[in-house]
Amino acid sequence: MTRIKRIAFIGNSLPRRCGIATFTTDLQQAVAASPLPLETVIIAMTDAGRRYTYPKVVAFEVEQDRLEDYVRAAEFINKGGFDAVSLQHEFGIFGGEAGEYILDLLDRLTVPVVTTLHTVLAEPSTAQRRVLERILAMSARVIVMAEKGRELLLAIDGANAAKIEVIPHGIPDFAFVEPDAAKLSLGYGGKTVILTFGLLSPNKGIEVMIDAMPLVLKSRPDAIYVVLGATHPNLVRDRGEAYRESLQARAAELGIGEHVVFLDQFVDRPTLLQYIAMCDVYVTPYLNQAQMTSGTLAYSFGLGNAVVSTPYWHAQELLAGEKGILVPFGDANATGQAIAGLLNDEPRRQAMRRRAYADSRHMTWERTAERYVSVLEEVSAPKRAHNLLRGQQTPKLPAMALDHLEAMSDGTGLFQHAVHCVPDRAHGYCVDDNARGLLLASVLDADGRECLPDRLTSAYAAFVQHAFNPDSGRFRNFMSFDRRWLEEQGSQDSHGRTLWALGVAARSGASASRRQWAAALFAQALPVVESFASPRAWAFTLLGLHAYCAVVANDKFAARLRLVLADRLVALLRRVETPDWIWLEEGLSYDNARLCEALILAGRATASEAYGVSGLRMLGWLMARQTSPSGQFRPVGSSGFSDIRLAPKPFDQQPVEAAATIAACLAAWRMTAQPRWRDDASRAFAWFLGSNDLGLPLVDPETGSCRDGLHPDRRNENRGGESVVSYLLSLADMRQFERVALVPDRSQPLHRGDIQPFPKPQFRGRLVASNIPEPAGPLSPS
Predict the structure, then answer these.
(1) Domain identity same for 125 and 220
(2) Which parts of the sequence belong to the Glycosyl transferase family domain (predicted)?
(3) Cα–Cα distance list, 205 to 92, 240, 667 (Å)
(4) Residue 623 sits in which domain range?
(5) Are residues 354 and 376 in the same domain?
(6) Which is it for the CA torsion 326, 327, 329, 330, positive or negative?
(7) Is the pTM of this model over 0.85?
(8) Helix (H, G, I), strand (E, B) or coil at 286
(9) Stretch 83-101: mean pLDDT
(10) 590 vs 79, 615, 640, 661, 724, CA distance in Å?
(11) Does the pLDDT value for residue 39 go beyond 80?
(12) 3-class DSSP state for residue 634?
């Protein structure tokens, strides 16, 4: 069995002083010490205004409030050959509202993530719930340290019980010893020692324990309460040592100052274990019930201490069954009585110690590391499996199966969505998907090997016809299952996509009558595009114009509008492009490659080098960003559509992006005869078959169904209309590579596509002014 080799831990790291830093460091060291040949690194979170001298194991540092550091950390992990990531999550250690900056890192990761939740809230704020739900969705597994954590998570919408693991807080593997030797070595010989350790802060309830000490001293006058730990750095920054000083003053007022010892130290592990070993009773008088995890409690319990604690969640579970004593929150009298009772009942105290020690053996860091590695192995298995597919540059093409497309269609048209493979009537229909269906029908008619059943093609065409509103010149988009239009007009993009389908139908429809219908409706719906502002609507219209103008050569308005729309796209590119951003928008969005395809085809049809070279350059740049470090196709994830000039996020990956890429590569291949475009298209098609980040196929070749996409940890099992048509269009395009004996088109000047890397365009041919946002004046159909 292939084992994981590299693991990245994200969290705080020593020498930063906090519980998360200690946990992250302890876990990393325990995993690194396992018998497996594992390489481990830490991605360390650094709080604002602080600097730490990190050890070499810290391979990358993220400043808490610098969003760009999170993006760079994701790139570091993705390019670093890591098999999995272990994230330590606490809302307060990450930047943004409720620590939302960590989502920008997770969104971009291409390796599986296992998240350990150090805090699970019963009543999270709106922002905290939003962040937690996103983390749950992006994590392949979620680890909590108590059953209460699992219970609270399952109350959250979208939580998946199968993803939740309960792994207790790790503890050092320390021998069960009596406290006398440790007391002597630390200078407390002959004393009865009560201990609390950890960073000092008001929620720890130290004042309650101080108030309890007079009751303890009545029966054990030799007792001493040791408070070991530095004041929390955030508290020192905001208030100095006022809290520690107030506790010391409180002890003095009670006349027990000599019985309360404050050790303002952040000690290393060996010293800490000595202090834990010397105590007769360990106490955690915390004030907050909603404490899911306490490392100090776990350590003391694991060393076989008798523990008195308030009933916060972690203590309730760990100390159940006479393995400790629980006392009410803030009750000094009950706390003092419980401690005094244990100190004066040696048999009970020793029995409690032995039960705690025996029950904690499964919690040692060695055992904890084994469980973490096992979980990390499980989630990375699909990632490893996909490596077997990496060499399949030219996958064998499945047959054109239309069963699922037929199941997703009725007499009205193509349903938008499905629940698994069952059409979802609740969301009705849209012109977008029915236009795609009409496009597929026309493409298959042109190919001639298979055709859609005429009832499907007729339904899609009828839907498109009914969607058109001649009064506005626009297509409606969304329709309910009971055939009610849900809007007066659709988006510009849906209008452009429908024109694209009509243009191809006008050229390639099976019957002359349908071709004439498509051409007439195309001409009727075309003029309004002149006023559109959406680059994708321009591109979709250009794709339709490419087909329409080939059969309606005398439509001067259409010919002129094609030049105007192509000019607009090239003008945008000239405005937005920088040396490292060869694109015509500030960010990447959906159907990106269609912009490239539109310019390539416009260049081919008009003999304009400016159009064609721009499209080729953009496609080459886009493909570099849609290729994973392992060489697989990785479409731009929809979760990053709003990002500005950032590396694309890898999830959620959708079939429409693969379909657009394959079509654009086919256009580039026909233009240039370069094998690279055929290879790129093959990689994009292999994504459907399982050569992807999860190593999971999205299609069922027997039925032609296609899942709606890839999440970070799983496939989207729903198989909607857009997905099935995207897959079938991709298959039809891939068959063109097999069928066409390519002869480069030498009748045009665009044979420069073999230039690598793509040069900045030298705009010869039609002049494209950089200041042309819209046509200079209105165009009239002629």
Answers:
(1) no
(2) 189-357
(3) 21, 19, 70
(4) 403-739
(5) no
(6) negative
(7) no
(8) coil
(9) 96
(10) 24, 17, 10, 11, 17
(11) yes
(12) coil
